[in-house]
Amino acid sequence: MLPTLVRRLAQAAKPQLNAAAANATKLKKVWPPDMKTMSTQQQLHFEKKYKRRVKLATARPQFDKAMQLAQLFTMALVVGYMALFMDWNGVPTPFDPLRENFYGFFGAFTKETKKLELREHHRPPQPESSD
């Protein structure tokens, strides 16, 4: 193993060919084109075509849709939290009627409300006093 390593290190480096020289066929167009030799109309046409091709090549419709849905979901959660649960320190907000309706409806499902209902349900009847 050591003699092979020494022999390979002693060999001269192989000349590397660039990509254009390695290609057997001649290129039809020079890339990138020389913008100085183009007229302004040709430059505009080239830029439009290049932008269109780049846009088509980089299109990711599934990812874009997923990102839009994630943004929509995040914004809905933030606005919902602000409207229903955020403490505004007594400052009147346009969310106050919504918050009152929300807690009025879902307040019946809290533990404190159920405890009060159970106490009232199991409370012995109080004798009526006849004055």
What oligomeric state do these chains adopt? single chain
Encode the helix/strand succession as letters: HHHHHH
User: Count of DSSP helices?
Assistant: 6
Rg estimate, integer Å:
38 Å
Helix content: 55-70%
Tell me the fraction of residues in β-strands, as a range.
Answer: under 5%
| Unreliable segments of 5+ consecutive residues | none
**How many beta strands in the DSSP annotation?**
0
Q: What's the shape? A: elongated
**Overall mean pLDDT:** 82
Secondary-structure map:
Blueprint: H1 2-10, H2 19-22, H3 40-57, H4 61-84, H5 96-106, H6 111-122
Walkthrough of the structure:
- By secondary structure, the chain is mainly α.
- Helices cover 60% and strands 0% of the residues.
- The protein has six helices and no strands.
- It has helices spanning 2-10, 19-22, 40-57, 61-84, 96-106, 111-122.
- It is elongated, with a radius of gyration of 38 Å.
- The relative contact order is 0.03.
- The mean pLDDT is 82.
- Keywords: Membrane, Transmembrane, Transmembrane helix.
- The chain crosses the membrane at residues 69-88.
List keywords for this structure.
131 residues
Tell me briefly what this model is.
The protein has 131 residues and is mainly α. The protein is 60% helix and 0% strand.
